[in-house]
Amino acid sequence: xxxxxxxxxxxxxxxNYVVATYLSEKADAALKPDKIILVSSKxxxxxxxxxxxxxxxxxxxKLEPILASxxxxxxxxxxxxxxxxxxxxxLTNQAHLNYTGGTKQMAVCAIQALGILDQKSQVSSTYLxxxxxxxxxxxxxxxxxxxxxxxxxxxxxxxxxxxxxxxxKDKGKIxxxxxxxFYPDLADHLRKMASGVEPGGRxxxxxxxKPWILKNSADGDKLNPASQGTPMNVSTLGxxxxxxxxxxxGKRDLLWSELDQEKLDFLLKGxxxxxxxxxxxxxxxxEVEPGISDFRAxxxxxxxxxxxxxxxxxxxxxxxxxxxxxxxxxxDLEDRLRGKAFEALHRAEQLGGEEARVMLITLAEPKLAxxxxxxxxxxxxxGKSKFKVWSYAQLYxxxxxxxFLNFLNC
Length: 410
Known about the structure:
The protein is an alpha/beta fold. Helix content is 40%, strand content 18%. It has 13 helices and 14 strands. The chain has helices at residues 14-25, 47-61, 76-86, 104-119, 161-168, 184-194, 201-212, 239-249, 261-268, 271-284, 333-352, 366-380, 398-408, and strands at residues 3-8, 35-41, 66-70, 94-98, 125-132, 137-140, 174-176, 213-214, 222-223, 294-301, 304-312, 315-321, 357-361, 387-390. Strands 3-2-1-4-5-6 form a six-stranded mixed β-sheet, sandwiched between helices. It has a six-stranded mixed β-sheet with strand order 7-10-11-12-13-14, with helices on both faces. Helix 1 (14-25) runs parallel beside helix 2 (47-61). The chain is elongated.
């Protein structure tokens, strides 16, 4: 008896892919699909994502999805007729409609179509299900021993970053950008400075960052030519930092103009901060629940550089790091941070769907970080568990680990 899984395709196909993967690899044999039908909408212009979903299913599940079209004027009876042409006419068919993707209108039409096929005995049994975003479980309209709600699918469907990105972007638009050299000791010392643990550290950031950054230039923040002859003033921070700079970069009394682009990126673009976050995630990733199935740093997607992507099963978290946020850095500090947050939220939803989460790691004062977080939650309607802004005070000590785990373990 062929088992047909019918998936409705919308703008984000990750739920479709998760459901198809779970039913094919983890579910009871009675629910395992033999064939998959992808119903896509011409009005929603989903040809590209439908093609990528089809390819992903072919590669992972070794199934050849069949395409069916839908448009706003199509009735349940018309869709039933189209699906009937796909079903095997010589065998008794089982149909399972998962209506997580697509629009409500598509779902209503598809449910009607399945009912019509059932009435005409073109299918012997039918199942209706959806992926519940609040519990991350697969739920059925009619529950039984076979169709009871599943446990958290993030613990059962473990994807890698490449799989998730391939559903949303062509391969040519995804690449590793040049990775900044890793200076772990220097990065950690900068974290101490920025978090106020190291005496004079935050003042050094604020005094030195303001004059040598030329912000809002055509190609992003860069070194201000007027500051190229000025010293880094590392001696003001004591022997430890001065010795680290000398060891890593070969000289104590460096001028800003003596740093090559990689070292400027390390400081100016906050690569030291993303290195700190990555190093610490590696330390306590085994304490995250649901577990971390994959993480990737330094990806460039459509020209947008991502500091870090974390996957818990299939649930994506984008970590964006910025050194914007020092005391009196500039008068439009809050607007600049808000712009960074908007971009991160937009990119996260593009890559991981509506349930994707964002961590924005900043050097901002705690009050500013809290205000910004609340404003953005109000603007975007995002819940507590979907968006978090870190201040400089959370960068060091137990607060860092606790905040990180509290955010991911939900």
